[in-house]
Amino acid sequence: MRTEEVPPTVDSITGVESKDVVIDSETRVYVRVYKPQNVGKVGVPVYIHGDGFCMMTPSSPLYQNYLNNLSFKANVIVVSVNYRTAPEYPLPIGYDDSWAAFKWVFESNHAEPWLRDHVDLSRVYMAGDSAGANIVHNLARRVEKQGDMTPICPLKGIILVQPYFWGKDRIGPEEKKVQPIGFNSLLMDKVWMVASPNSSGLDDPRLNPGMDHELGNLGTYKVLVSVAELDAHRDIGFYYKDLLLKSGWKGDIQVIETLGEDPVFHLFNPDSPKAADLMNQFAEFLNS
């Protein structure tokens, strides 16, 4: 599948300016950075796009539009990551590229003036949808594991939007749930195996958090999970909350559910009242 791409721009409605910055000349991994008008020192969500670890980029119109509006609404600098995608670049390459972008935000004497002049490094977040939310969760686990990084990489919180978690025996109540018409659980199985052919399978702890025996070491203390009622992964979001609370993790997690909506409705119908309400909740989380 190919996807349309659009260049960075100055948005005529919001005034938000965006530009692409290559962060690794060897891999050509880049980020698209969004800056609102008249901005001082603000927070920064590092955003990881979704679509099965295989498709989309920060240049996709859906993400250009949505993250432009998030930057405006929340008054934050947004860093949108172009990680290399499967099957040409199987996981963990996508995790590693996203981790490199996260570390890039914290570079001392930053060469990127938008970050150097406008980012409050005590307010760094990560956010993502679907497969991107899976990457965000796994990077938050990596923050905890990288002891040498912890002093310079405080992660204030993460936003997981309809996260792609899965498992061989299905996760939590998902096993008993009546799935939407057209949903194909075999396809959901194969997405992971295409993206991560060398993994341990559907119960790999990166995909099934119930198999992560050190889940309580998540490297942040503030988590927001967004689920949609008609999404086949809806129950998994609540199950993730239960797992975290039982793991000994000491943070605060909230799950918000949007009723009557399909997966990633906020990208496909960003002007709808429910998408606007969700945007407001994201902005509040990023500024609380």
Structural write-up:
- Belongs to the 'GDXG' lipolytic enzyme family.
- The active site is at 130.
- It comes from Saponaria officinalis (Common soapwort).
- The chain has 288 residues and is α/β, with parallel strands linked by helices.
- Helices cover 32% and strands 20% of the residues.
- The chain contains eight helices and eight strands.
- The protein has helices at residues 61-74, 93-105, 113-118, 131-145, 185-195, 234-246, 265-268, 273-287, and strands spanning 17-24, 29-35, 42-48, 78-82, 119-129, 157-161, 222-228, 252-258.
- It has an eight-stranded mixed beta sheet with strand order 1-2-4-3-5-6-7-8, with helices on both faces.
- Strand 3, helix 1 and strand 4 (78-82) form a beta-alpha-beta unit.
- The radius of gyration is 18 Å and the shape is globular.
Low-confidence stretches: none
Instruction: Report the portion of residues in β strands.
Output: 15-25%
The secondary structure category is alpha/beta
The N- and C-terminal alpha carbons lie at a distance of 39 Å
Largest sheet: 8 strands, mixed
How would you describe the shape?
Answer: globular
Q: What's the total helix number?
A: 8
Order of helix and strand elements from N to C terminus: EEEHEHHEHEHEHEHH
Largest sheet strand order: 1-2-4-3-5-6-7-8
Number of DSSP E strands: 8
The amount of helix comes to 25-40%
How many whole angstroms does the radius of gyration measure? Answer: 18 Å
Query: If you average the pLDDT, what whole number results?
Result: 91
Protein name: Alpha/beta hydrolase fold-3 domain-containing protein
GO molecular function: hydrolase activity
Active site: 130
Domain Alpha/beta hydrolase fold-3: 46-259
